[in-house]
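Board notes (copied after class):
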Amino acid sequence: MDRRGGDEVACDVPFQISISRSIVASSFLASCLLAACGSGVGINGESEASSTTGGGSTSGATAGGGASSTNGTSTGACVNRPDAGEFTACQADDQCGCGLSCQSDAEQGSMFCEFNCQQTSDCASVLESCQNNSCRQNNCGSGTSNGQYDGPCNIADAGDGFCYPFFEGGETVGICELGGSAAAGASCALQPARSSPASQLCGTDAFCESTCLVACDPLEFDTCGPGKVCNSFGGLNSPHLGVCKAGQPYDGGFAASHLPAPQIPYNGGPVITNPRVVTLSFPQYQDGGFAVSTYADWIVGSSWLKTVGADYGVGLGTHLKDFVFPTVAPAQVSDSQIQEVLASWIADGGIPTSTESSIYLIYYPVSTTVSGAGGVSCHSFFGYHNQFELSNGTPVTYGVIATCLDQNDKPDYAEAAITTSHELIEAATDPDPQGLYGNPGYRFNDLTMAWTYVIPEAADLCEGSTGSYSDSYSNSYLAQRIWSNSAARAGSTSPCVPVPSNEVYINASALPNGTQFLSTSTSAQIVTYQISPWALSPTNDWYLIASQMFGSFTADINLTGGTAIGSGVIQVNNGVAVTLQVTVPPGTPSGSYAGIQLASDPNTSLTNYTLWPLAIVVQ
């Protein structure tokens, strides 16, 4: 997303271009996940092994699988049969072990050895069902578009199973499992054979890890009781699946109850691992206010880039060229015109040819107003990044950095430096933010998650945090801190890296979690959130600020609790009870939305703050 700026509260199109650097300071809760819809044997994706992947024949390494399994049917004499187990490729029955026959698997498009059966009870594993006289694992398919597997599925009868994530070769394919009745603490097996003493399945409120562990939702808090914490069980693909285990909260135990920090998902799109940066500016930028070339030389080889890019596979880069346009900058320019200028100069050979590793950073002076990212520069944004294709199909990844006036009506070159760092890392981790030419890279892309509407990319989540960094000659450079998935998982420091040694991380999460969907109404509608401020260690009171960032309607925001300071501003500390009420106006049409952020700021200056997003959509 762009680095936002200015005084506009909302824009009609939230992500026409990736909005990245702002001036102003999702999935549904699966309520039926563990109880109402049923449950079954939990699959520990981190340790499960598997034979093949894809389609209805996908199977884990089932207990009793292969030639040694007991099976309810027989192919007759087993004389001279090879020791070829289930899912072994074959061309004829005599190439399969005892109790198996060579059958065509339509899902796999090949021939495999599979157990014969007449009914589901003939199959060796309780995770298999009899389909077309073959014992096959009931696979849930490839899941929904956002990778969720927490839903009902079929073993023998409609809705008699529950779909759990099954990790295989780096891919999650899902597996359908019957429910059971074993209580928490009872012995169980991950993939029990029917004849095994451990064949019992955990009940609807537990998962199996040798014993039945109580199920919980890692995205909620206080679900396990004292002395226990909710450990993720399903990973990114099923984030609501968890089990209660003994232990202390991940943040060390001081912080008040709160939702865990999120993980920015990878959507399968390109990532620029070693950026080849080309900077472009106008003669007005050569007044000594901001040395574009010097800054670019530093950042591509900096410890800052090495640190912030580590979680996303982005390493050090190269500053290929610093180009100054021969004419002065235009008074106004649109995003489409910027694309035309870049394409023209690339075609003429004036700037280096674009490759999959290229990032073009174009700087406009104070005298230029840029129209793009759903708004105009210095009102809606400080900068943004985007991508287009040349006529030959070559992608062109670029970032736009506007120059705005500071409080003294001087060009704010410090902000231009911070915006450069913001757009560079987002262009590298998510070159095609709209997914116009394929999948996006690292970003929130699920419209049931509030992060998607407000702060979807790695720099957006930390746009309230900046730092000063030095090169080998002790020259200092400003850059924004960037979200780290690994730091967020650890929970012991701020997830915005690099982390200063003396920082106490503060934030405030909100329940209900995720995007809130409403129906159109002739009456005003109120969404009430319970806000949980927390700090990782003792600290002074801080300011909690609630404001609308984007949207097609203007919501009324009422923040109560703590010490009232002003409209939408209160003073809080760790564990203070806070309530936020957001009122949607009567008659708000279907398709409308509002993106709201909670900013936790030590001094209300909005120069060093943390963020938590909220989103409301009217259907």
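Comment from the instructor: The two ends are 24 Å apart (CA to CA). Residues 413-429 form the longest helix (17 residues).
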